[in-house]
Design brief:
The complex is a heterodimer. Chain A is mostly helical. Chain A has helices at 3-24, 35-45, 49-62, 77-95, 100-110, 113-140, 144-180, 186-210, 214-232. Chain A has one domain (3-211). Chain A is globular. By secondary structure, chain B is an all-alpha fold. In chain B, 77% of the residues lie in helices and 0% in strands. Chain B has helices at 2-11, 26-40, 44-54, 62-79, 84-123, 129-154, 156-165, 168-193, 208-222, 227-244. The relative contact order of chain B is 0.09. Classes of the chains: A mainly alpha, B mainly alpha. Chains A and B meet through helix 2, helix 3, helix 6, helix 7 and helix 8 of A and helix 2, helix 3, helix 5, helix 6 and helix 8 of B.
Chain lengths: 236, 245
């Protein structure tokens, strides 16, 4: 992958990230912004659907059950779902390697973007206050189109803000992964493999913590696990 | 009339286009009602009154907001500029309960249920799991949104009867139980299928690690410890263990 290709890839990912972010709040809400979808789409764009899907599964569980409640906003899982697979897949291509330690690092460096995204989301909604003032002024003059334009302005500002944020987020995650990964000692790489392996279980725990039913979960887990062991004739 | 209402319905998908902390979905509400305002206002004064009315504070669940817009649009089309009080009443009485019902039904119930279903499909080898999620979720989403709008057009009472018939609190409780069962199935499948890194031979005792992890993380989440804090703390511990060993 040369620099020209890399630049175009980041531009495409930024625009796609901006569009996916619109689905989070501003438009439609078909939930294409969920990490399972966003990460797979990123993988598809980068020609590695499988890696995108794996990271998407891991990230999907981490924040499942968090929701916007009035003015309280959830972390931005969409940015992580674009930046982490992008950082993992592109670094893998550049260095000619791909394993769980690389994906673990890509996820770990991308996770803080979720909190930055939350702050930006709040900022975007504050900016929308300007459009509200304009909408009220348009209403006082009886201008229907003037009011409608403010809704479009809100959508546009949200899209522009999160397109830029996705671009910067992808670049930061990519730079951190690309620069760190080759310099990490073997012990750290081993740790990263274990961390990446554990993340889906952290996700399951997070979902369990946000819902009720520890006992039901425990019984189902045990029964399923015993059933699978007996059907397969032992642990693989 | 039908095409006008169809336009209102399509616009309700953008109700959060300009979500702001002061009026929340008010600009989106006015945006959705704009075709109706255009159709019923005869004078500039009426237009100003209607626009100002529709720009008052409004916040509900975005999917159920379509139903409220439907009810408001219908009232406005029937009684024109005289429907101000009725629309205010519709917004005041329905927005909060519908917000709570929508959050419970969609964000806390259908989203986790279908996400976990799709992830189980992926763990069992289906690359179509994102499509499975989108189809399952949006079938329900569009059905509720569309039917809510239709019932809203027929009037507030009809809409309330429709939502009551759905028995959302009971439905949510039942579906959440299914979600937890599916979560157990998913966690066990992951523990069974995910090969343990760098461990050779039979290592049944290590297979206990996932379920212990899940319970600890779940309890810490309940105690209010954020997931990122837990992940980074765990990463440091793993790093330390690897370093020492």
């Amino acid at each position: 992958m040369d620099m020209g290709n890399l630049a175009w890839t980041v531009v495409i990912l930024s625009v796609v990230g901006g569009l996916l972010h619109l689905d989070r709040t501003a438009a439609l809400q078909f939930l294409v912004s969920r990490p399972l979808i966003s990460s797979t789409v990123t993988g598809l764009i980068l020609g590695d659907v499988k890696t995108g899907l794996i990271i998407g599964m891991v990230l999907e569980l981490l924040w499942l059950g968090t929701q916007p409640l009035g003015t309280a906003l959830p972390p931005d899982d969409t940015i992580v779902a674009v930046a982490a697979p992008a950082a993992g897949i592109i670094t893998g291509r550049l260095l000619g390697t791909m394993d769980a330690s690389l994906l673990g690092l890509a996820v770990l460096v991308s996770l803080p973007l979720s909190e930055v995204g939350r702050v930006l989301d709040s900022g975007a909604r504050k900016i929308n206050g300007i459009f509200l003032t304009r909408a009220k002024a348009a209403a006082k003059n009886g201008e229907i189109r003037g009011v409608q334009r403010q809704n479009s302005a809100g959508l546009a500002s949200f899209f522009i803000l999160f397109t830029l944020f996705t671009g910067i987020g992808v670049l930061c995650a990519l730079a951190a992964t690309y620069l760190l990964y080759p310099r990490l000692p073997r012990t750290v790489l081993t740790a990263l493999i274990w961390i990446f392996w554990s993340l889906p279980f952290f996700g399951c725990g997070a979902v369990l913590g946000r819902q009720k039913g520890f006992l039901t979960f425990g019984i189902t887990y045990l029964l399923t696990f015993v059933l699978m062991i007996s059907l397969s004739g032992g642990i693989r | 009339m039908r095409s006008l209402l169809a336009r209102v319905f399509m616009r309700s998908f953008l109700i959060q286009g300009c979500w702001n902390f002061e009026g929340m979905q008010n600009i989106g509400f006015a945006f959705g009602m704009a075709p109706v305002i255009e159709a019923v206002s005869r004078t500039k004064k009426e237009r100003i009154g209607l626009l100002t009315d529709h720009l008052t504070y409004f916040n509900s669940h975005p999917y159920f907001a379509s139903a409220i817009i439907g009810a408001a649009a219908s009232a406005q089309l029937q009684r024109g500029a005289e429907a101000g009080n009725e629309i205010r009443e519709i917004k005041d009485t329905l927005s909060n309960p519908f917000a709570a019902l929508g959050d419970s039904l969609f964000w806390s119930t259908f989203k986790p249920l279908f996400s976990i279903t799709a992830i189980i499909a992926a763990v069992w080898g289906s690359v179509l799991s994102p499509v499975i999620f989108l189809v399952l979720y949006n079938t329900v989403h569009l059905w509720v949104r569309g039917m809510g709008f239709m019932h809203g057009i027929r009037g507030r009472m009809d809409l309330m009867r429709y939502v009551k018939r759905m028995e959302i609190p009971n439905l949510s409780i039942r579906l959440k139980r299914i979600t937890i069962v599916l979560l157990g199935l998913l966690a066990a499948s992951l523990a069974f299928f995910l090969p343990l890194p760098m461990v050779s031979g039979e290592s049944a005792w290590l297979r206990v690690v996932p379920v212990v992890t899940i319970f600890i993380v779940g309890l810490l989440i309940k105690k209010g410890v954020g997931i990122l804090t837990q992940i980074y703390a765990f990463s440091l511990i793993v790093l330390l263990i690897c370093w020492l060993s």
